[in-house]
Write a structure and sequence with these properties.
Mean pLDDT of chain A: 86
Structural class of chain A: mainly alpha
Largest sheet of chain A: none
Distance between the termini of chain A: 6 Å
Helix content of chain B: 25-40%
CATH architecture of the largest domain in chain A: Orthogonal Bundle
Strand content of chain B: 15-25%
Number of helices of chain B: 19
Order of helices and strands of chain A: HHHHHHHHHHHH
Oligomer: heterodimer
Largest sheet of chain B: 11 strands, mixed
Shape of chain A: globular
Mean pLDDT of chain B: 86
Largest interface: A-B, 48 and 51 residues
Structural class of chain B: alpha+beta
Distance between the termini of chain B: 57 Å
Radius of gyration of chain B: 23 Å
CATH class of the largest domain in chain A: Mainly Alpha
Low-confidence stretches of chain B: 18-39, 47-52
Helix content of chain A: over 70%
Shape of chain B: globular
Number of helices of chain A: 12
Amino acid sequence: MTQYIIRRLIQSLFIIWGCATLVFFMLRMIPGDPVIQMLGPEYTPEAADALRHKLGLDQPLHIQYIRWFGNVLTGDLGGSIASGETVTGAIATGLPKTLSLAALSFLIALVIAVPTGIIAALRRNSGFDYAASIVAFIGVSMPSFWFGIILILIFAVRLRWLPAIGYSEITEDGVGEWFKRLILPSLAIGAGYSAILMRFVRAGLLEVLGSDYVRTARAKGVREQSVVLRHALRNSLIPVVTVIGIQLALLLSGTVVVETVFSIRGIGRILVGAIFDRDYPMVQGVILLIAVIFVLANLIVDIVYTFLDPRIHYS
Amino acid sequence: MSKIDWRQLSGPQVSRRTLMQLAAASGAAGFANRLEAQHSMVVRASAARAVARQDQEPKTGGTLRVGFLISQIVTLDPQQLSQGVVAGSILPSIFSSLVQFDQELGLIPDLAETWEVSEDGTEYTFTLRPGLTFHNGDTLTSADVKYTYERTINPDFASPHANKLALVESFETPDDQTVALTLSAPFAPFLAVACTRGPGRALTPVPQRVVEEMGDEQFGITPIGSGPFMVVPESVEIGRGFELAAFDGWYGGRPYLDTVEIRLVPEPSSAVSALEAGDVDLIDPAPATLFQQLSETPDVVVVEGPSTSWRGVVMNYARPPWDDINARMAISKAIDRQAFVDSAFFGLAIPAVGAIAPAFGWAYLPPDQVENPQAFDMEEARALAEEAGIIGAQPVIISSEEIGQRPTEVLRNILVDLGLDPQVDFQQAATFSERWQAGDYDMFLHGSVVDADPDDGHWNIFYSEGPWNTYGYKSEEADQLLVATRETSDQEERARLFQELQTVLERDVAAAFAYHAKDLVAYNEDVMGFIPIPEQRYYEQVWLDR
């Protein structure tokens, strides 16, 4: 197992390196010049040349790449072209927000999806099952930014229970304020996510409930509650965990638009802003981070399999 | 041209009052009246409460929370800042400069108590107020102004404002309170574009010691200025906003507010919700799409003012048939300006007859007083289009977020009505800049952003060698007029020259002039003392009635 993890980690390094390299060159292939963008209406060819030189963008591409990659190896992701802050600094302020948002959204999704999915599976084709399916389809089809705006209009503008925008540091204003500002955006993302998860929980459980060993368990007279929770549910979670790993992308991309609606400057908004600005170091740094998160998350998913199903071995 | 006395530009005040007196004296009474009417911003409060409170004594204290509709502030370093909106709305709170605009866009003292301009218009002498300090307590003297000048023109520093100081020949500081500079030729808008609080970033003093200790990058994030508020360094979070704290040592006395909190809220509907929910006290600039809703919201005051900018369709002379005046005139005559403004901006813009923005009341002529060869006439437009053979043509219109999808779509529909088959190429900001600078387009809605003087919106775009003239307009007549506007400081004369230029530009269809966007702000009713100056925000007079 340890050996497997080490091997996977080494593989991961190559994946991340490939990803970073691809981004480095693709970014420079798309049209748009960060220098022109930065100077905006004050552009003159002389000012552009001076700035290009200052930023090292007048160097040949391979020199720029070697220099950047060398710095990354020493942990230096460089400075933003557009704002002057360091990339690591921007990530340090943005990541806690996005992670808070993603974690709470995920929690909300789980709390909604797992019980509803189980009940829908057990009472297949009942009124509850149909109602849950309809709500789930609405949830999937509802764009999170739109749902976010509706939540703001109801809970912030009309009822004035919760703030409309912004984020509070848990360390500065306490858990209460942090939670108050996060609950609406998390609901906006979590609702759609829960709809997808719920469908997978339901489908997974249904499949397992029809399998031979469940029939055997029932034949032996095991109580239904025990059949579902002890025997069936754990096995039915394997596809769900797979989906969670893949859907992490959805969760992260969901935060991009929701961060904009709620004016939270997390990783998503930083990345989108940086792409618009052709802020090369920032885009490279943030994508590097996302690649790392992704690869690690999927590694964790693979490891979780072994706990869910002891038959799965890695060697 | 009558003999010009450049001394009229001397301070402590160059007001529009002077201009109006001049106008009256020269028999232009109608012009004097227009000066009074054109520039003003309209403040609409929905409740009588606001009116009743106007005579109250201002209260000290509190935090003004500003929702700022921009996704990123690139830098707060005045010499590096190129975002016009930031220069107008935020910079004036942090940095004082030599002079500043009053409510009517006349000039009044800021750090310079008085200033003299020589008769030939080339020598400027500023006398600074005594006892000025920066936020950190360092004294502010003429040496800091000189350092700022050297910083701006340093080619390695690459300031986008260096060109505004290109004519400066010598820069002297005879004593701590005196700044004396000489221009190689007269340059009428010099004070407005290079020395004003807010737009005049080229000479907005920065403290040498701090800049050198902090480094340029850091100074752009946590700057030290000499304005009424100071940046609280630990509050700065790039992309989210920052706090400004009242500066006790400001020459004008401590502002009423304790703190101004600047929060970036780029999404218009979120900003409006935040104002309605009481999460922010003021939003700037208020989105035109939701302005009607805001003006009907109880407890919200909306301010609507003329902008200092213009937009119009420019057509690329390098790409036939757009070098043909009939083709350009056909497009221009097909634009119903009022309908354009109504559908693109919900009526919250002003139909344009030229590039002189209504905020510059001293030069602006309202549409009904201008003989406009470009006036809307669909039949004539069709006839011209037939003649020029542009029916069925497929011009490429480039556009960006900043220009806006709505106005571009409205333009596209107009061209379709005329019988053309236009292609809209909506670009991200970076690519858009690259394309218009390379001249890679048939047409687009060109124009200016936040101008300190009509010079900004004319010279760059219509001068044959102007840096933003990438569509190839070249006219000796226009060039001569442009040079003349820079060489006279008599505002009455400049107004006349700009108006004459406008006639030339209209006739040549240098642009099919379309609209002037409005300057919109909305705030909570308990925000008092807001000074409506077009595209400039001064928060030292603002107080909270709560």
